[in-house]
Amino acid sequence: xxxxxxxxxxxxxxxxxxxxxxxxxxxxxxxxxxxxxxxxxxxxxxxxxxxxxxxxxxxxxxxxxxxxxxxxxxxxxxxxxxxxxxxxxxxxxxxxxxxxxxxxxxxxxxxxxxxxxxxxxxxxxxxxxxxxxxxxxxxxxxxxxxxxxxxxxxxxxxxxxxxxxxxxxxxxxxxxxxxxxxxxxxxxxxxxxxxxxxxxxxxxxxxxxxxxxxxxxxxxxxxxxxxxxxxxxxxxxxxxxxxxxxxxxxxxxxxxxxxxxxxxxxxxxxxxxxxxxxxxxxxxxxxxxxxxxxxxxxxxxxxxxxxxxxxxxxxxxxxxxxxxxxxxxxxxxxxxxxxxxxxxxxxxxxxx
Length: 352
Known about the structure:
By secondary structure, this protein is an alpha/beta fold.
């Protein structure tokens, strides 16, 4: 498969502080929070209302008539935090882009990327915080004491969160899904589990397989994870993984009332996809487009190439050389991501 290079200027400066640092960069510090109305009674675009103007028409008209919002939405999967930004060019006809961020996703960065894709890419964007992430996790602790963290969160369970959100928003026509890192693995699972609801899956530096598998070596990893004659192996492996995540990610201010919640969530999210192989997830799934930088230790090139090759209509793009070694491409060059998405979905909008 030929390696593509995204067009346009590489290494653009980041001008939105909400995009730095990224959720997979393990930042430490205070998180700014802004108030927004809390509505958990579901969402109906037909009744949400927006300012008077031209009639909105198209397959997404009912949803788009609700306009922009940031709030929790009641779904069969629970109360899920969603930020919506509606295209100003063709709100009823523009196919929404679902944005799924990395392990430690927070609402501020999701909102920032939604704004950017809408304002600069002319897209309608739905940013979703999955189970175990940000305000969705906070709401779960407030309502149930954190029941969502009583088990590992599989990609199948998280994919259902996305389709449940689409149902709650009244969206029945296909959408595009965009995911970074952990979010890339879940975006791939959505395309696998609900192919009639996904037109394209855009995966940026996605989780491709267990990092511990490469670090430990295949034999040692199998001995720890899949060996029935080693009853303590899996327990020790999981304990080590939890400790590693705890050291790698600083605490988040929004969870100060719930000590331990954030790191337990990281553990449940990571373990839920630890045995997954991206190549297997997307095998035969149409229109999976992958973007990754060279020397990204968390998302090795060869596994991404193999995954893209297994997708009919899929493609692989290597990020510009200026981004070599970068994993969190949302923080590193969000402008490049907007260009890449437009090249894949709307070539007429792509910059020369």
